[in-house]
TrEMBL record:
Similarity comment: family membership: Belongs to the G-protein coupled receptor T2R family.
Protein name: Taste receptor type 2
The keyword Ribonucleoprotein is assigned to this record: no
Naturally occurring in which organism (per UniProt): Engystomops pustulosus
One GO MF term attached to the UniProt entry: G protein-coupled receptor activity
Keywords assigned by UniProt, alphabetized: G-protein coupled receptor, Membrane, Receptor, Sensory transduction, Taste, Transducer, Transmembrane, Transmembrane helix
Taxonomic lineage: Eukaryota, Metazoa, Chordata, Craniata, Vertebrata
Record-annotated membrane-spanning stretches: 6-28, 77-98, 118-139, 164-192, 216-236, 248-268
Keyword Transit peptide part of the UniProt annotation: no
Domain of life: Eukaryota
InterPro entries on file: TAS2R (IPR007960)
GO cellular component: membrane
Membrane topology per record: Multi-pass membrane protein
One matching Pfam family: TAS2R
Length: 292
């Protein structure tokens, strides 16, 4: 594969490298915590899953630059990783809601008590369903399925089998994005109301619960914006690829790693365990320590 001479290609490479240490840091710290305490919180599991799929997304970007085979099938790979990332982000937002917000309703109370126990098997089923659907679409793809020269002959060059499989994946990804958006906005509204009540009860003084709520609001907001931008970038990238337009695809390929950077930073700063582990590492960096 010949890489076009485009200045944005170097920006893409840089944005692919920057999130790698952060995602690896999240995974390693949680694994160390598991071997130390022999258990992990549900939020830790979800953050590990989100970081793993972000890493796979960056690895796929790297492979696309070096292999022509993956260039033809990259649409389904991006769709799969995008759906998994949005799914984990949605579940993380729902977990924050169940953990922080209290709603006096029998269904909500039951979900609070059983969410961590009921989640693993449905989550594995959904992730496996995404994988086999994407794998089936890749195996059934035909030569020239995603290739066309003009928008006028789009319906002629795109086979019905390919168009339907791609449409199903796009609909699933869109539904996950909508679920993440609705749940995150609901959580933000509930958290802001709850923070206002806490501030009124404490007469304006800042409490530890307020700090935890602020961290949760920042984390959920960044995850929400990042997921929306990722889905829109992936959607437009697929449309541009279908229209045989490669000029703007590099711009959208830059936005996705940038969203991973902000998501990773938000997860680290929003989690006390990760933030403290990062502070300890930075204290041992000689070029960051202040000389007395």
């Amino acid at each position: 594969m010949i890489i076009p001479e485009n200045p944005l290609i170097y920006v893409i490479i840089v944005t692919l490298i920057i999130p790698l240490p952060g995602n690896i840091f999240i995974i390693v710290v949680n694994i160390q915590d598991y071997f130390k305490n022999r258990r992990l919180l549900l939020s830790d599991h979800l953050m590990i899953g989100l970081s793993v799929f972000n890493l796979l997304h960056e690895l796929l970007d790297t492979v696309v630059f070096t292999s022509k085979f993956f260039e033809e099938n990259t649409t389904y790979g991006y769709m799969y990783l995008n759906m998994c990332s949005v799914t984990f982000s949605s579940l993380l937002s729902i977990h924050f809601c169940l953990k922080i917000v209290n709603i006096h309703h029998w269904f909500y109370i039951g979900l609070q008590r059983r969410f961590s126990k009921l989640l693993p098997w449905p989550l594995m089923t959904v992730i496996s369903g995404y994988f086999f659907l994407s794998l089936y679409s890749v195996l059934e793809i035909k030569p020239g399925c995603l290739l066309n020269t003009t928008s006028s002959d789009f319906s002629l060059n795109l086979s019905p089998r390919c168009s339907w499989s791609l449409l199903i994946l796009m609909i699933c990804s869109g539904l996950c994005t909508v679920l993440c958006t609705v749940s995150a906005l609901t959580i933000l509204i509930s958290l802001l109301k709850h923070m206002k009540r806490i501030q009124e009860n404490t007469e304006g003084s800042r409490s530890p619960n307020m700090d935890a709520h602020i961290r949760a609001v920042k984390t959920i907001t960044v995850l929400l914006v990042a997921n929306i931008v990722i889905f829109i970038s992936l959607l437009w990238n697929n449309l541009l690829f279908t229209w045989n337009e490669t000029t703007w695809t590099y711009l959208f390929n830059v936005l996705i790693p940038i969203c991973h950077i902000f998501s990773c930073y938000s997860l680290i700063k929003g989690t006390k365990k990760l933030d403290m582990a990062l502070a300890k590492i930075l204290q041992h960096c000689p070029f960051l320590t202040r000389r007395n």
